[in-house]
Write a structure and sequence with these properties.
Blueprint (H helix, E strand, L loop, with lengths): L8 E7 L2 E7 L5 E6 L6 E7 L7 E4 L2 E6 L4 H8 L2 E2 L2 E2 H7 L3 E6 L4 E7 L3 H13 L5 H19 L2 H13 L21 H11 L5 E7 L3 H14 L7 E3 L11 E7 L5 E7 L9 H16 L4 H8 L8 E6 L4 E8 L3 H18 L3 H19 L2 H13 L4 H10 L2 H11 L5 E8 L3
Parallel strand pairs: 3-11, 13-17
Antiparallel strand pairs: 1-2, 2-3, 4-10, 4-11, 5-6, 5-12, 7-8, 9-10, 14-16, 14-17, 15-16
Helix pairs in contact: 1-6, 3-7, 8-11, 8-14
């Protein structure tokens, strides 16, 4: 439940050559500012804890439980840049500022990036995100545009394989539905639905702002408070309803045909990150290091799969670890998808039994820490990491320290507790007629 705000709080985190200001404004908005003296580029990410999962809720704005069509969070993101007086992107571009937005399962973010006139651009960002303009005519027009986007992704074999695995792992759960919804679900969205969800989830206590660059934290916060007060943005109490209980999936395999040159395999496993008894950032670190040490170039399993001609450079492995859901995803192009599936499952089972090689883990840790340090010099990476750590309620700089300290035994204990060897699901895409 999102609670009402308290008095403004300010803390400063210093370390690794970084200074990060953490503030909670009087209206409840969380602001994270990475001050980087001498940097020419400035970046801001204004986001809300609202994504495609959040279609079933109760709020203080309207009586009763609200169940909205799939894809509405993404629909709002599409419409936010269009205003009565024109496209916001054009206004930002005139200031030399680039802008964009994205929607995920549990988050929507709007970003700006510039080297000059940052304060003017920031004011426009806060204003257009907190001051929506939805009309029935524009909503109906957008349905056709989003339907084309949904169909475009369905024609992408990589995305189709990815979603195919999630459909198997998360049956009867919103994660199994495309973030943009379905062509059918978006037809039911109305302008009133958009206003309800915007007024509910785009409220200060459910939002956050991350800024990185050579800027004055007091000036940034003053701009934000002034614009949000002008737009009468008010706190809202939100209750997200529990999703229906899901049985743990057994091993499943789906096969479909698409117009592709060669076969593709996606293989995934679901787990509950909050049930493992360790902080969620440690779960994420453990899986990142495990997958890097077990399946990246140079390790034994990857080398064997490559020698057997089961994988090529398209092969990848990643973990998505969130409070609401978590899963591992592996896959890529292969001439023998079922043989690759069998070899991956056997190889991972063996590593879970024997543990990671010390040399592979050492290399994976250095690679990950090098990426973390490089990210400190990127204003965009800093902002996204600040928000990710805020959502997971962990320290950004502490994440880097923990990355170097966690040992192999603790990593293996976490991964073994999470992965059920019999609960992997596979999605194979074959060329048509083969």
């Amino acid at each position: 439940m999102t609670t009402m705000p308290k008095a403004e709080e300010t803390t400063v985190e210093v370390g690794m050559g970084e200074t990060i200001h953490h503030r909670v404004l009087n209206n409840g908005l969380v602001v994270k500012i990475a001050v980087k003296p001498g940097f020419l580029k400035k970046y801001a990410l204004f986001g809300t804890n609202y994504g495609s999962l959040d279609n079933d809720f109760t709020s203080s704005l309207r009586k009763g439980r609200q169940r909205l069509p799939a894809g509405i969070a993404h629909f709002i993101e599409h419409k936010m840049f269009e205003k009565k007086d024109g496209d916001v992107m054009d206004r930002l571009a005139a200031l030399g500022c680039s802008s964009n937005a994205m929607t995920s399962f549990n988050h929507t973010g709007y970003l700006i990036e510039c080297t000059e006139k940052f304060e003017d651009s920031l004011e426009i960002l806060i204003d257009f995100v907190t001051n929506p303009w939805f009309t029935p005519e524009l909503v109906d027009k957008e349905k056709g545009i989003i339907a084309e986007e949904i169909n475009m992704y369905r024609d992408d074999p990589g995305w189709r394989g990815y979603m195919g695995v999630l459909e198997s792992l998360f049956r009867n759960h919103p994660v199994a539905v495309d973030i943009a919804g379905t062509v059918e679900s978006i037809q039911d969205i109305t302008s009133d639905d958009l206003y309800l969800c915007h007024n509910t989830f785009y409220s200060p206590g459910n939002m956050h702002l991350a800024v990185a660059g050579d800027c004055d934290p007091d000036e940034v916060c003053a701009i934000v408070e002034r614009v949000m007060e002008r737009n009468a943005v008010v706190p809202v109490d939100i209750t997200r309803h529990e999703k229906s209980p899901r049985k743990k999936p057994s091993h499943r395999r789906q096969v479909e045909e698409m117009p592709v040159v060669g076969p593709k395999l996606h293989l995934g496993c679901r787990f509950d990150a909050l049930s493992l008894g360790v902080p969620i950032d440690e779960v994420e670190i453990s899986f990142d290091l495990f997958l890097s040490a077990a399946l990246s170039k140079g390790c034994d399993l990857h080398s064997q799969l490559y020698r057997d001609n089961l994988i090529d450079d398209s092969f990848g492995a990643s973990a998505s670890v969130e409070k609401e859901f978590a899963f591992v995803m592996l896959g890529g192009d292969t001439q023998s998808p079922r043989e690759l599936e069998k070899a991956l499952l056997a190889g991972i089972a063996e590593i879970l039994k024997t543990g990671l090689k010390a040399s592979d883990l050492r290399r994976a840790r250095r690679r990950a820490y090098g990426g973390f340090v490089r990210g400190l010099d990127s204003v965009s990476t800093a902002c996204w990491n600040l928000i990710d750590c805020h959502v997971k309620d962990v320290s950004y700089l502490g994440h880097g320290r923990k990355l170097m300290k966690i040992d192999g035994d603790r990593i293996m204990k976490t991964v073994r507790a999470a992965i059920d060897p019999g609960a992997w699901s596979a999605h194979i895409i074959n060329p048509i007629g083969k």
